[in-house]
Amino acid sequence: MMGSTPLLSVADLKVEFVTKLGTVKAVNGISFGVSEGEIVGVVGETGCGKSATARATIGLLRRPGRVTHGTIEFDGVEVLSLPPRDLRRIRGSGLGFVPQNPFGSLNGTLRIERQFRNVLRAHGAASRAEIRSLSIKTLEDVGISDPERILRGYAHELSGGMAQRVAIALALSLDPKLLIADEPTTGLDLTIQRQILDLLHQLVTVRGRSMVLVSHDLGVVAQYCSRVLVMYAGVIVESGPVRDVLKTPAHPYTRALLAAVPRRGKPLQGLRGSVPDPINYPIGCPFYDRCEIRADPRCATEAPPLRQIGPDHWVASFYDPDMV
Amino acid sequence: MPLVKVQEVHKAFRRGSSPAVNAVNGVSLTVNRGETLAVIGESGSGKSTLGRLAVGLHQPDSGSVHFDGMNLGNIDQNSLRQLRRRMTVVFQEPLGSLNPMMTIGQIVEEPLSIHEPGLGREAKRDRACEILEQVSLDSALYGRKPGRLSGGQQQRVGIARAIISQPHFVVLDEPTSSLDLSIQAGILQLLAKLQKDLDLAYLYISHDLASVDFFSDRVAVMYLGQVVEIGAKQSVLDHPRHPYTQALLSASLSTDPDVTQEQMSLRGEIPSSVSLPQGCFFYGRCPYRSDPRCAEERPPLREVAPGHFVATFYDAQSDYLAGGQ
Fold this sequence. Notes:
The structure holds two protein chains of two kinds.
Chain A: E1 8-19, E2 22-34, E3 39-43, H1 50-57, E4 65-74, E5 77-78, H2 84-93, E6 95-98, H3 102-105, H4 112-122, H5 128-141, H6 147-152, H7 160-172, E7 178-182, H8 190-206, E8 210-215, H9 218-224, E9 227-232, E10 235-241, H10 242-247, H11 252-259, E11 307-310, E12 313-315
Helix pairs in contact in A: 4-5, 5-7, 7-8
Chain B: E1 4-13, E2 21-31, E3 36-40, H1 47-54, E4 62-67, E5 70-71, H2 77-84, E6 87-90, H3 104-115, H4 121-134, H5 151-163, E7 169-173, H6 181-198, E8 201-206, H7 209-215, E9 218-223, E10 226-232, H8 233-238, H9 243-251, E11 302-305, E12 308-310, H10 316-324
Parallel strand pairs in B: 3-8, 3-9, 6-7, 7-8
Antiparallel strand pairs in B: 1-2, 1-4, 4-5, 9-10, 10-12, 11-12
Helix pairs in contact in B: 3-4, 3-5, 4-5, 5-6
């Protein structure tokens, strides 16, 4: 799908969660790449597999989730087959992670300074002074004006916006080549969201790094990403440059998502039905049940493969807007 | 006469020996029959508390709330109960506001047992099924529990419960904030249809500017328990005059990649509602503070365009004109 050799290359990834009710196929065979300097958005609704994709990529799947198939190659190394020790080394300096809930990634019982020390020491920083100055510098980079005070404090003393800044600073302190941010601003207020996203965008571009930005918000994707993957029911249904996907969406689901964004004086369109059961996916197109078009007899019987419809623009649907 | 009239309302919450949290600090506004007034603002702006005050779920510390000319603070319990039928709430978390032990039928019917105790079982059941259909739910759900419903269906149950008593005024407290976009669209459509069919007035509390723009007639912007700007939607959203409204609008992200928005950045975060600032509440974060009064006085709401009020000493209009020359 990519021209140059990508920094991250995910091939036919499958993630499953074994539950009492059955095996949930959270990610059902997806492939994508992230090149240097790129910000790739992953967008979709609850249960589409976007978070599982992000967490699998960095080896932080929550139990009982596990990767059952596929390869994840980062910077030329197959990540999934690495022993935990080597994976930890890559995680941090190679791959950084910013979670949705910063309080989940910050340790509530340790002072912030200690958490910087733990992270930096695990990755070879030497003296206490060195660690301290690096922590202060990273906190300043994320727009914290009084880093010394923050370092002395605990996570619970921080507001949501400040905690997310600290979580980002921790992830960035190792200067990862690729940052994976899983809904980093969900739950934060609008003005804070914008500050955090501007900050991530700036840090990633200034340092020439890359980012995977998982979001349910099309506005976030439109304004901050260069390329986007639209996920539905565990698969990528459309991918391409942000402008192409959002201005000329090809998949009926992408179109429906955009039509569901409220706009003044425009009719609003919801989607009928609901997402298919991830334990028993239907045969045929996963969007079949909710699709207004169902253009092809194969829709009910075959899962449409991704096909190319423009420069790096791919869609998994039998429907061809140009034919209508 | 407006349907709902909130006048100079204050509300603080005290827990144990902790200092009081000043949630609403002198709010006045009105809601007219059949209209939607949106209340926007960030966490801690007091918008949910205002919603509860407006339907008498909280009693104001001072100030008054009138519904259809009656002062909620001055009527007996019996009349208040009668009024409650006419003003209801749809809550943010559908599941959290629905009793998981009750059937959907019982949940939807419950207001009838209070407001129309004489109604027989059959009649109640008929009304409930009718209302379920009105919110596009299968009346076969009547005997089921809400736990297995999807988020969108749960919120439809919450809406059914809110309209079964034939209210005139419904507070919508972030009714779609926990729902996916495609589900939110259906709920907003339903609410718009019900408003038209039943001539409902809505107080629509939200932090989602796109839905506010789609859904409301007028908009009130709250900051730290005060209304800093209020007026017709086109006026407030297209020509915001308060620096906070301007910052809030500039922070919203267009889904059109070709529309780039400069963000007006604010310093710091919303101050604590425990110790309110002197002077203008927005002073600490305001990029335009220049008037000597900003630090000393609380700017009153003044009318800057017909029906459009703003509480700031800063004059965006003159600044805009000066900048445009």
